[in-house]
Amino acid sequence: MSLSPYVPIIGLFALAAFFALFSVAAARFAGPRRYNRAKLEAYECGIEPSPQPVGGGRFPIKFYLTAMLFIVFDIEIIFLYPWAVSFDMLGLFGFVEMVLFIVAVFVAYAYVWRRGGLDWD
Amino acid sequence: MGGLSYLAQDPTLQDFGKDPWWLVLIKLVAAFVFAVLATLLGVWFERRVVARMAQRPGLNQIGPFGLLQTLADGIKMAFKEDILPKSADKVVYFFAPTISTICAVTALSVVPFGPMVSIFGERTPLQVTDVSVAVLVLLACSSMGVYGIVLGGWASGSTYPLLGGLRSSAQMISYEVAMGLSIVAVFMTAGTMSTSGIVSQQADGTRLNLFGVVDLPAPGWYAILLLPSFIIFFISTVGETNRAPFDLPEAESELVAGFMTEYSSLKFALFMLSEYVAMVTMSAVTTTLFLGGWRAPWPITLWEGANSGWWPLLWFMGKVIGLVFIFIWLRGTLPRLRYDQFMRLGWKVLLPINLVWILVLAGIRTLQQEDVSDSYRYSFIAGAVLVVLLVTLLWPSKKRPPQRTLQEKVNRRPAGSFPLPPMDLQVPPSPRTRRAVAEREPANVGAGQRPGAGQPGDAGTGHDEKEV
């Protein structure tokens, strides 16, 4: 009997999941439990923790922008992969097509750069 | 020592998925044990090496050379209290470290450790499995690892972990762009995405024949053929694994321990485990993609049997340990980057260099193809030169505004504007003080003269001169 080559990936996933869940669960029982009010507070170097707003609160917009840019460029990379794998078969046509594609993305990239989307502060 | 004898050992995609179930199980357990051992020894190795770099003896108490120190730490951690902070999101807090660990370990499933070997009479590749999109599996695992970190930071319900988690996720996705792009060159050269295929494509390099005497086979390692890709890939793996000098999510001086701040006991241990497994996995992936995988480096290949049997496991481990050493060396040497410098490096340096390099490589490879006629070739080169010229012409020049002295700045001001105070401002004493000082002047002579104090007119005159 032989297994599909994808099965071992799921197998290792399951093995790792079992190990991780087991250790997280075991830690609940193996360790001591001594109640202490201060211990359960959020750690802020010993001062009273600042109250967390309901629903997670706000965070700097730059993180959001970075995630958005990531999606744009990650999709570009995903488009490049099949082209790169079959590069030798595509020849000149494939090259010209990809130059046009990369130039188009480069325009967007230059725009983002110029508008300060890549500056952190 | 012909190329064919190497290739005979190379597994192809058809060799995978033929193992009986018990062999799959053995391989799975072996890969998992490798991950755990890599953590235990990796922590030990790192602490020893960093200690040596800092002129300290390092771990030497538990076990020979302190080898068992990490194991002892792990056992101790299991018997520590598992704290669940009051403000934490209970379910997510529980699952975040497991996500990190699972992703780090699963990536090992497609790493080729060696060629075809025989285990209990079964001929099988020394690799858990390989699929035609193996590198995508690796990328997927490394990007899914972000979830463990960002969720762990968010679920802690505390300020430092939240910021650490956000930073970490922004960092990892930024460097994933650079990493993903640098692999494009490898795909282009290898023509495949399967890891074993990429290793076998690096088998033969060009041969350097020196004076007809020494036949020096240059390795077909992509680290040499695609040097820019290799450098960018390695830099981005350091960023991707949150290692120094890019360990901003765990910058102690700013964020305590980053996303791990609220974690204790075995949950903390799992985060440590995933960090070290990710480091070793990334080294293994770098070895596979750029350093010829399990294939022996040049002087060893003079020996016929170097690339057969179980020996390649040794070369593979040697390369991985070498890369891990470089990771540690970086940590021992370089100071941490500032966050904006770090993001600038990823987005403004690595990304454009990568894109241009891919275009250059694609152009060169297209020119090398046989069926391209000469006229095409020349128009290509002319086009490339034209583009380079255009870019140089249109490049926005960065002219620094001229640094003027204060006097020049003052002179440039329109007439009648408000007088600019001098940089070395000495407030002229008020008329009343001037009078008082003048009256007390004789008494002050013996008490030592402060510069400028005795001549009240000086500061005022200097100021007057600068006025327009």
TrEMBL record, chain A:
Signal peptide (residue range): none
Cellular localization per UniProt: Cell membrane; Membrane
Principal place of residence: membrane
Membrane disposition: Multi-pass membrane protein
Lineage top rank: taxon: Bacteria
Keyword Cell wall biogenesis/degradation attached: no
Enzyme nomenclature, EC number: 7.1.1.-
Top enzyme category: translocase
Catalytic activity, as annotated: a quinone + NADH + 5 H(+)(in) = a quinol + NAD(+) + 4 H(+)(out)
HAMAP family: NDH1_NuoA
Quaternary structure (record): NDH-1 is composed of 14 different subunits. Subunits NuoA, H, J, K, L, M, N constitute the membrane sector of the complex.
Record protein name field: NADH-quinone oxidoreductase subunit A
Lineage: Bacteria, Bacillati, Actinomycetota, Actinomycetes, Micromonosporales
TrEMBL record, chain B:
Subcellular compartments: Cell membrane; Membrane
Source taxon at top rank: Bacteria
Major enzyme class: translocase
Keywords of the record: Cell membrane, Membrane, NAD, Quinone, Translocase, Transmembrane, Transmembrane helix, Ubiquinone
Stretches of the chain forming a coiled coil according to its record: none
UniProt entry tagged with the keyword NAD: yes
The keyword Acyltransferase is annotated on this UniProt entry: no
InterPro entries assigned to the protein according to its UniProt record, in alphabetical order: NADH_UbQ_OxRdtase_su1/FPO, NADH_UbQ_OxRdtase_su1_CS
TM region positions: 20-45, 91-113, 133-156, 177-199, 219-238, 268-290, 310-330, 342-364, 376-395
Catalytic activity: a quinone + NADH + 5 H(+)(in) = a quinol + NAD(+) + 4 H(+)(out)
Ranges of compositional bias, category Gly residues: 449-460
Pfam families given in the database record: NADHdh
Description of how the protein assembles with itself and partners: NDH-1 is composed of 14 different subunits. Subunits NuoA, H, J, K, L, M, N constitute the membrane sector of the complex.
Job of this protein: NDH-1 shuttles electrons from NADH, via FMN and iron-sulfur (Fe-S) centers, to quinones in the respiratory chain. The immediate electron acceptor for the enzyme in this species is believed to be ubiquinone. Couples the redox reaction to proton translocation (for every two electrons transferred, four hydrogen ions are translocated across the cytoplasmic membrane), and thus conserves the redox energy in a proton gradient. This subunit may bind ubiquinone.
Similarity-based family: Belongs to the complex I subunit 1 family.
PANTHER family the UniProt entry points to: NADH DEHYDROGENASE SUBUNIT 1, NADH-UBIQUINONE OXIDOREDUCTASE CHAIN 1
The name this protein goes by in its record: NADH-quinone oxidoreductase subunit H
Source organism per UniProt: Plantactinospora mayteni
